[in-house]
Design brief:
The protein is of the alpha/beta class and 219 residues long. It has two domains: 137 residues, Rossmann fold; 55 residues, Arc Repressor Mutant, subunit A (Orthogonal Bundle), CATH 1.10.10.10. The chain contains ten helices and six strands. It has a six-stranded parallel β-sheet, sandwiched between helices. α7 crosses α9 and α7 packs across α10. The longest helix has 15 residues. It is elongated, with a radius of gyration of 19 Å.
Length: 219
């Protein structure tokens, strides 16, 4: 008796790519495309209904991006394997996906064999990364554990506030910070205000000076 097929949900806001990938996966033995979604918000409903094993997730999408959707899905369905399949291979996106709970990360352009292998591996509880990304992940962990930026010098800040302060010190604008951390501009503004209050500084320039004196913004 053959094993049950792996039930996959595809999430991508580009209909042509989404439909093409659906046809590709449906043509493979042992895979059942149980649903598709055009954004992260829709994915939450589709995954619930589809009883999926694996979600193949884009990152840049309207309503709810792939990182936030991954975090929510993994919280709701701990058994679920998420493979991020996106155009971006920058470190910020890779590690944001990992922190959100993704177990696989491939760049669009991956071969049919690579995508199928990733789906099967993640369904089996493994971690899968494309070759270039896997190398960077290995280098990151080989460097050893490190404290979050400013952990020792700004203990009054939350981890998110320290992360934002580090980017502030590096000269990033609020829109750039929002994009880098997959946050809304309003959330970034609120965090920046909290940082100013906790550090007892009057403005952005003073916060940047304090942060740089403490060694932030040099990453």
């Amino acid at each position: 008796m053959s094993a049950e097929p792996i039930r996959v949900v595809l999430v991508d806001d580009h209909p042509v790519y989404r439909e093409g990938l659906s046809l590709l996966l449906e043509s493979m033995d042992g895979v059942d495309v149980a649903g598709t979604a055009a954004d992260g918000e829709e994915a939450l409903t589709v995954v619930e209904r589809a009883d999926a094993d694996v979600v193949v997730m884009d990152v840049q999408m309207p309503k709810l991006d792939g990182i936030a959707a991954t975090r929510e899905l993994v919280t709701r369905h701990p058994h679920l394997g998420v493979v991020v399949l996106t155009m971006s291979e920058d470190d910020e996106t890779v590690f944001a996906a990992m922190r959100a709970g993704a177990r696989g990360y491939l760049v669009k352009g991956a071969s049919q064999h690579q995508i199928l292998a990733a789906v099967r591996a993640v369904a089996g509880g493994e971690l899968v990364f494309g070759a270039a990304i896997a190398r960077r992940v290995a280098e990151y962990f080989a460097a050893g554990p490190a404290s979050a930026p400013g952990m020792d010098v700004f203990p009054q800040l939350t981890a998110r506030e320290r992360e934002i302060l580090d980017l502030l010190a590096a000269g990033r604008s609020n829109p750039h910070i929002a994009q880098a951390l997959y946050l809304s501009p309003k959330t970034v503004r609120n965090n920046v205000s909290n940082i100013f209050a906790k550090l007892q500084v009057a403005d952005r320039a003073e916060a940047i000076v304090r942060a740089r004196d403490a060694g932030l913004g040099r990453g």
